[in-house]
Design a protein that fits this description.
alpha+beta, 36% strand, globular
Length: 355
């Protein structure tokens, strides 16, 4: 016995069948084109994926998310030896698009920090594998041209190879002989900034005198430093005993050409473990006038001034600092913004961690 449907249901079913037939015909047409493309690709035997038109239509429904560069390097595209591939898993580089790098004197030569190595390079075989992996993965490559801004001024350099220093991956440089001489006699306080350069430029000599100040300004500097230290110590009276008894105070300064100012002074007070930190930075001009600065650098808890130099070529000196925190430290360069009266983070390198 056949079942009879109401006329309205019959009409609805007929409409749906008609639409389905239209869609199936359209789909069949598309499939035939896809089959023809597949037959054309059987010569190469490759899966070429969707056509350009299909890709565009899919993109209209879901646009891909932008790819954010990561600091950790992925496995290199070129094939490495087994030893180099093992070393490669322990290398962490800066982002490939980074333009600013920290350079410093290490082992009597100026090198550029480009990342971290999480293993020890003990043998000659380890050294060969390490260099092979770094050459394949480094954001800087042998032959790359860099512009170096340091206490001597500005000069060009070329990446000549790679090495490691205290757990850091460093790029070796071909430099003018006078810069090599500075690095051989300097300690870790010699810091510079390296930036990518497309072409060679004539060297720029820095004429700023940073070795001395007048006796009057030196006396004024001592008075201001003592005053700031006393002010910071007075703020510890309300601290718990465990913090107040572990507080230490340190003052550091650099002589330079900070616009109209000649000295940048930084006074730091912190407790062991860095649970309590206060830091003050000021500029002093030739008359002894004091201008306070804001420190806009959050990577480290405290900062000790190492040297002053024009790191960005704007004619105003910046400072290299040794930063410290809870079981962490490193070298940073802070840029002086005289108009805003603040120190901004510029670049960082040669970080270390400890227990």
């Amino acid at each position: 016995m056949s079942r009879r449907f109401p006329p309205l249901v019959v009409l609805l079913l007929a409409s749906l069948s008609f639409l389905a037939a239209c869609r199936s015909g359209e789909f069949a047409g598309r499939m035939s084109a896809a089959e023809a493309a597949a037959r054309a690709d059987t010569v190469t035997g490759l899966d070429v994926g969707p056509s350009v038109a299909d890709t565009m239509s899919m993109a209209a429904y879901s646009a891909p998310e932008p790819v954010v560069p990561r600091a950790t390097s992925s496995r290199p595209a070129r094939r490495l030896s087994a030893e180099a591939d093992s070393i490669a898993q322990t290398l962490v580089f800066f982002v490939n698009g980074q333009s600013w790098f920290t350079a410093a004197a290490r082992r009597k030569r100026l090198v550029v920090d480009i990342g971290r190595v999480d293993t020890r390079i003990r043998t000659t075989a380890d050294r060969r594998a390490y260099e092979e992996a770094v050459h394949a993965m480094s954001p800087l490559h042998t032959g790359d041209r860099l512009r170096i801004d340091g206490p001597w001024g500005r000069t060009d350099a070329t990446v000549s190879g790679f090495s490691d220093v205290n757990g850091r991956i460093v790029a070796l440089l071909e430099l003018p002989s006078f810069v090599d001489s500075l690095a051989r006699v300097a300690d870790d306080a010699l810091v510079a900034v390296a930036t990518r350069a497309d072409s060679a430029m004539p060297p720029v000599v820095d004429s700023c005198v940073r070795d001395s100040v007048s006796a009057t300004l030196a006396a004024r500097l001592a008075v201001v430093s003592d005053s700031l230290q006393q002010r910071l110590r007075s703020d510890t009276l309300r601290l718990p005993d465990r913090l107040r008894h572990s507080v230490w105070v340190h003052a550091s300064h650099a002589v330079g050409c900070f616009g109209p100012a000649r000295v940048l002074l930084m006074v730091t007070m912190a407790s062991s473990g860095y649970d309590y930190v206060r830091e003050v930075a000021v500029l002093l001009d030739d008359t002894g006038r004091v201008t306070p600065l804001r420190i806009n650098a959050l990577r480290f808890k405290t900062h000790e001034i190492l040297s002053a130099f024009d790191a960005d070529g704007d004619g105003v000196d910046d400072i290299a600092i040794k930063g410290r925190g809870d079981r962490v430290g490193g070298t940073s360069v802070l840029r002086l913004d005289p108009a805003r009266r603040r120190l901004d983070f510029l670049t960082q390198g040669f970080a270390w961690e400890g227990m």
